Amino acid sequence: MPLSVPLLIRKSIHFFTGMLILVLTWLLEREVLLWLIVGGTLFSFATFRYQRFYLLHKTSDASLGTLFYPLGILGAYLLLWSLPLYYFQASLMVLILSDTLANLIGQIKNGNGKFRILRDSKSMHGIAGYVAASLVVFFVFLPLHLLANPFYVFFLLALAVTFEVLSWRGSDNFSIPFGMAVFFYLSVVYQPDYRMLSVVMVLLTAGSFVLYHQQMLTLQGALAAWLLGNYLLALPGFQWIVPVLLFFFSSVLFTRISASKRQKKGRGGNRNAWQVTANILWAVVSSALWLATGNDVFVILFIAYVAAVTSDTWASEIGPLFNPRSFSLAHMRWHKAGVTGGVSPAGTLAALAGAFVIAAVSWWLFFGQWNTGMIALITVAAFLACFADTLLGAFVEPRLLKMPFFRKGHSPEAITPNDLVNLGGSLTAGFFVWLGMGLFF
Hints:
By secondary structure, this protein is mainly alpha-helical. It is 73% helix and 4% strand.
């Protein structure tokens, strides 16, 4: 359908505002332009609720695009402050030119397929226009020594498309400029091998599709796994992704075996985005803190968090295979295996084994040596976190299930009380590591 008047007005304002900022990057000092961008951001937030500025902000009641827009530009400008100006200009113009062109071309009807991954609908024609415009932006603003590497261009373009497609209520106005800025910043600081990154990105894409097709992950779960894999690969060293892959594939394997042995039908290993996030969030936070500080304590926390979720998953899936009954901590008596908050001898041994495998493999990958004391500490901390998860499952999860939010019946992609329990339980691994290091090291 043709562009609506509010959308056309808003896109025009965004386009000319962005072009003005581009021109000012050549005319003004960086500090002056920063204050102008800050002022524009404050103006956008201050006027968002006022009816007289309706055409400036609203294309629909659900859109927050005009709030994401200045935040994305401001975030990109601050992140790229110390880098050559052309990085910010390229990030800005992908948003201003490529995204605008995608909206215009996306209105073509003939042969134009529509798809949606998150909330916002996208079109094949629009994505094609976005790709073409982004290539033009790269070749106009980026230096030739970068563009001479085809793998750099491929990886950059793939990320740019990702930031456009993964849109929620206009969030691409933030994800495009800020996501591009993050890539430029990391590429300058760490100078990764783009040939390797490009190949692995293709493999991750194929692998995520297979996991979705085999019903091991939901669509959004596959997307979350793909994003996580690319993020970890962007870190310097494959050791960041190996423990996560070991956790994930072993968990899927044991889940499938457990479901098959018990002749259990249902989702089985079909994990959604919340489950993927709940299992790995604290490890991602630790890796981000390592990026910001370079402090190896965050590497240790990363290992502990991955070990904790591995310990919990192995216990949950392996325990019922060998022990038909488990002891419920909530009721203090034996129940059928698989009850929430239950413990069993086989599950306990599996929890220790999962924690030890991740701790040992990860420590060797990161530090290239065997440190019995630290490996033992991480193993114990992860095991205690698994027990904390069991306690939360026994006493907190039943209360969460009674809350109206969880009683309404959500889609398979919705967050569950078990996801919150996993988040809380795995978080304690960091506390136990910190306590152990303070007492023994």
